[in-house]
């Protein structure tokens, strides 16, 4: 599987995140089905906009490219996207690029003009087979600057003669640099061979990039098809407008999104629409995914609670529910990677888990054995989608604020919180507060109990009262208001 990677002239945005999360899910599902996947994704480090930026900032092209490679890898790691097996770069593939261009010239598919080399589209009868268009149609509708050096207006550059101030490499046609399209063909030939199973990218790459890849690759090797399956995803829309582009400045950076939302919430948002359906990035939509994510997490928490508090080992039908969910999930993914239906299978299973777990916790139901099977199935299927379903942990930065809450309630009700707790363990502080709250409730000191619950809530710690006792969790962030800074505890 080869996926077109980012151009390294600027930061990745949430549309890039969608692309790489989707192909990560595809890879995970193929491996779940038993395939061995060799995943290659390129880095475009020779490109007009990188060169323009380097010139504008007085920096080296390689320096800018490496800056954004490092940032990109950090961000996809944070998004839970598993790294590709290989990340070839255009600048490291020059010998193969020169070999392919020379072969195309020798076969009559390309020609030289004053140090430039162009692909001769009229030499490839299957040109535009991917988009189903004709040369005449494309020529009539295209806005192409006339170039008298070209044999045909649709001919495209394989090699560009060197210009002052631009990076260049030696070649049989003089110093220069590769055209954009030849880079991917050369990297695929070098890393994966003459034919590949899957090639992916955004729908904006169908023409001209992928059409040109097919033409130059099949013309060079003489083998068809160059790619067995093409997958093109729709493009992410910005909060306002129709197209999200870095060079237009109307994008939400992936870094900003990961600062505001969890990786699971972002991925669930991505997967809630079919990959070929355009989706608009909005805070409201991602918050909705955050709430949905909490339903899945809560199902696992409830299952763990029920398993821990009951000795009943009856199935209560959950094993069958888990089997149905897995079947529905696989059927959805087999149907052109229909992730919305796959996600729906997870929510159906979560609802069944909650129903049985609620009865088990209250002592009026059965199903401990089935809860094990169902919760394991939910985790397993979620992992295929790259969802960890891990609850956010309480961080050490909340320790001063938690200590302030404990000091506050001890001041008013020392008998319920008899000893000061001097610890840097935030979870121990929370358990201490909840133990004192339980004593307050037992003595009908409900004002104290409510005060503890309210103060914890202000810190993003939600308390649930179950028949078996209190349970706490970190509230999911909705991106609007973070918990108070621990360095500024409430007076």
Account of the protein in words:
This protein has 491 residues and is α/β, with parallel strands linked by helices. It folds into 3 domains: 2-260, HUPs (Rossmann fold); 290-384, Four Helix Bundle (Hemerythrin (Met), subunit A) (Up-down Bundle), CATH 1.20.120.640; 396-474, no CATH class. Helices cover 49% and strands 10% of the residues. The protein is built from 16 helices and 10 strands. The chain has helices at residues 14-32, 48-57, 61-78, 94-106, 135-141, 180-191, 206-221, 254-260, 263-271, 283-309, 318-334, 339-361, 368-384, 399-412, 426-442, 446-458; strands at residues 2-3, 40-41, 110-113, 116-119, 156-161, 176-178, 196-202, 227-233, 461-466, 469-474. The two termini are 57 Å apart. The model is unreliable at 479-491 (pLDDT under 50).
How would you summarize what this structure contains?
With 491 residues, this protein is an alpha/beta fold. The two termini are 57 Å apart.
Protein traits:
single chain; 491 residues; alpha/beta; Rossmann fold; Four Helix Bundle (Hemerythrin (Met), subunit A); 3 domains; 4-stranded parallel sheet; 4-stranded antiparallel sheet; 16 helices; 10 strands; 49% helix; 10% strand; disordered C terminus
Architecture blueprint of SSEs:
Layout: E1 2-3, H1 14-32, E2 40-41, H2 48-57, H3 61-78, H4 94-106, E3 110-113, E4 116-119, H5 135-141, E5 156-161, E6 176-178, H6 180-191, E7 196-202, H7 206-221, E8 227-233, H8 254-260, H9 263-271, H10 283-309, H11 318-334, H12 339-361, H13 368-384, H14 399-412, H15 426-442, H16 446-458, E9 461-466, E10 469-474
Parallel strand pairs: 1-2, 1-7, 7-8
Antiparallel strand pairs: 3-4, 4-5, 5-6, 9-10
């Amino acid at each position: 599987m080869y996926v077109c990677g980012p151009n390294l002239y600027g930061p990745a945005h949430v549309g890039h995140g969608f692309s790489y999360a989707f192909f990560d899910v595809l890879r995970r599902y193929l491996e779940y089905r038993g395939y061995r996947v060799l995943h290659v994704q390129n880095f475009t480090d020779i490109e007009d906009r990188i060169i323009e930026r380097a010139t504008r900032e007085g920096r080296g092209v390689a320096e800018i490219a490496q800056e954004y490679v490092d940032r990109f890898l950090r961000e996809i790691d944070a998004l839970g996207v598993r790294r590709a097996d290989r990340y070839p770069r255009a600048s490291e593939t020059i010998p193969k690029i020169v070999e392919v261009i020379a072969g195309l010239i020798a076969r009559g598919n390309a020609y030289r003009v004053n140090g430039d080399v162009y692909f001769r589209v009229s030499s490839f009868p299957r040109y535009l087979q991917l988009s189903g268009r004709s040369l005449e149609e494309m020529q009539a509708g295209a806005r192409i600057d006339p170039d008298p050096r070209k044999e045909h207006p649709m001919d495209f550059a394989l090699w560009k003669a060197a210009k002052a101030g631009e990076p260049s490499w030696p070649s049989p046609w003089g110093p220069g640099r590769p055209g954009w399209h030849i880079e991917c063909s050369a990297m695929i030939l070098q890393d994966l061979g003459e034919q590949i199973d899957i090639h992916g990218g955004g729908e904006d790459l169908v023409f001209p990039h992928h059409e040109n890849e097919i033409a130059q690759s099949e013309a060079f090797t003489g083998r068809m098809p160059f790619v067995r399956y093409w997958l093109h995803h729709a493009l992410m829309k910005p909060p306002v407008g129709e197209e999200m582009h870095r060079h237009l400045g109307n994008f939400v950076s992936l870094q900003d999104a990961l600062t505001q939302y969890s990786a699971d919430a972002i991925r669930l948002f991505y997967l809630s629409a079919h990959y070929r359906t355009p989706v608009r990035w909005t805070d409201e939509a991602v918050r909705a995914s955050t709430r949905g994510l909490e339903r899945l997490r809560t199902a696992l928490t409830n299952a763990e609670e029920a398993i821990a508090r009951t000795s009943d080992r009856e199935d209560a039908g959950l094993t069958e529910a888990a089997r149905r969910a897995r079947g529905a999930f696989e059927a959805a993914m087999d149907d052109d990677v229909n992730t919305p239906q796959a996600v729906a299978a997870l929510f159906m299973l979560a609802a069944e888990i909650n129903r049985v777990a609620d009865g088990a916790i209250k002592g009026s139901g059965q199903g401990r054995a089935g809860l094990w099977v169902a919760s394991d199935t939910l985790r397993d299927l979620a992992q295929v989608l790259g969802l960890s379903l891990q609850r956010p942990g309480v961080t050490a930065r909340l320790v001063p604020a938690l200590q302030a809450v404990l000091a506050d309630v001890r001041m008013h009700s020392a008998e319920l919180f008899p000893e000061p707790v001097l610890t840097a363990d935030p979870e121990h502080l929370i358990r201490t507060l909840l133990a004192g709250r339980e004593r307050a409730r037992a003595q009908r000191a409900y004002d104290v109990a409510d005060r503890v619950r309210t103060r914890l809530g202000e810190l993003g710690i939600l308390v649930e009262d179950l028949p078996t006792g209190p349970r706490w969790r970190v509230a999911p962030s909705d991106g609007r208001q973070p918990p108070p800074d621990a360095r500024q505890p409430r007076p």
